[in-house]
Q: What sequence folds into this?
């Protein structure tokens, strides 16, 4: 039975890694098994993060004629995408050295993005990107590789899908002296994959954990805006954008603290960073024998 559960968990993770998205640099926790064979745990975590992303794809414009122009190549830099992420976690100990878990929760996203190549509006800037709270979920596994005294070495893998609700966005034209802007809707979908390895060092009353990790982001962004163009004369100018998203940097490091509230309840807090992203998080879990 345990082998079947382990195979199913690995299969679900592989499917998640290989499928496309229909960001948040999520909380990871210690890189080792935490639960124990045939035991369960339930947890809750909060994470705040900012990260830079690259977006590339196509955009098109209807300059008020009622006829869409051709799709043109476009590329944007998304700077400091800010996200709040709250996740509940449900874990099962497949063995003493392997845990699997499911995460369910909500996330949001706020940011601006600026055109970095010539497109429909070269040099223009999308501002006020505001995606409200939307559904987020994920799958993961933790494993202990070996233990030497107070030092435990292990790793983790987690995949998270984030779908902030549809929000608002504005397209501000260049040069900035033009008074008009286009407004409309934005839809953002993200998938994040994290792979970490490292030690957990047991100290008096608490433990320290961390190490290097890989962070991959894939997703897409869709916008549709309209308004009076620079002439200020109706009918409305319309612009649509469809781009794919990826991370700017993949390698990062993280460090955290873990303590025991009682025999079955533990808490942890951690800091994560890459060269283009950082995040803070806190969480707590309770084990059920």
A:
């Amino acid at each position: 039975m345990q082998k079947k559960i382990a195979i199913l968990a690995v299969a679900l993770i592989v499917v998640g890694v290989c499928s496309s998205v229909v960001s948040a640099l999520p909380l990871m926790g210690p890189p080792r098994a935490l639960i124990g064979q045939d035991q369960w745990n339930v947890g809750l975590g909060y994470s705040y993060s900012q990260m830079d992303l690259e977006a590339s794809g196509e955009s098109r414009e209807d300059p008020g004629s009622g006829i869409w122009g051709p799709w043109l190549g476009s590329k944007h830099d998304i700077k400091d995408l800010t996200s709040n992420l709250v996740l509940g976690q449900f874990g099962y100990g497949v063995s003493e050295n392997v845990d699997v878990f499911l995460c369910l929760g909500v996330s949001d996203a706020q940011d601006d993005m600026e055109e970095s190549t010539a497109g429909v509006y070269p040099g223009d800037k999308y501002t006020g990107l505001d995606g409200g709270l939307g559904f987020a979920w994920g799958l993961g596994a933790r494993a202990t590789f070996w233990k030497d005294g107070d030092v435990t070495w292990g790793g983790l893998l987690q995949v998270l899908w984030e779908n902030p609700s549809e929000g608002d966005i504005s397209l501000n034209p260049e040069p900035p002296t033009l008074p008009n802007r286009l407004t409309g809707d934005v839809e953002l979908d993200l998938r994040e994959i994290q792979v970490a390895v490292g030690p957990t060092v047991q100290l008096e009353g608490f433990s320290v954990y961390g190490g290097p990790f890989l962070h991959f982001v894939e997703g897409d962004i869709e916008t549709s805006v309209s308004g009076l163009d620079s002439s200020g004369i109706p009918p409305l100018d319309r612009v649509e954008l469809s781009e794919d998203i990826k991370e700017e940097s993949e390698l990062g490091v993280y460090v955290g603290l873990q303590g025991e509230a009682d025999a079955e309840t533990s808490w942890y807090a951690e800091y994560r960073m890459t060269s283009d992203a950082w995040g803070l998080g806190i969480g707590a879990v309770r084990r059920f024998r």
Q: What stands out?
A: Confidence is low (pLDDT under 50) at residues 1-23.
